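Appendix B. Raw example, untouched.
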Amino acid sequence: MADVHDSKTRSRNMAAIRGADTKPEMLIRRGLHSRGFRYRLHDRKLPGRPDIVLPWHRAVIFVNGCFWHGHDCPMFRWPATRQEFWHDKITGNMERDARNIAALLSSGWRVALIWECALKGRGKLPPEAVIDSLIDWLCSAEKRLTLEGLTADTGG
């Protein structure tokens, strides 16, 4: 499918995409805060600068965009233009994510990964269910949590 924007407009649109304080991230932050959880944001001392850091629970939360982090879901599609550039960019992001998560786990942190598709799109989960799952995980001893949207394979 051809792009509906010319290259200048597409470049401006892509440059405007936020890296922090995104709508999905804000939804998670508001949900945790309203339930009494306090946290730090984007701690530069930790690998990957996690979006949310809960030192009391020794837990970090990443809220990842499906496009930028190459999530295998209906919200992700490889771009048709500049394919080599985008392949290198997105696979590089995926490799860096894996290294950062491994470093966090090996240093005793617990890691939650919330995908954008859990909060947006056709397969999104109810926001309360996402927050409930996250809080259940925070109060458990589990090292990892991954939340993603429903797909045709998972019943959605």
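End of appendix B.
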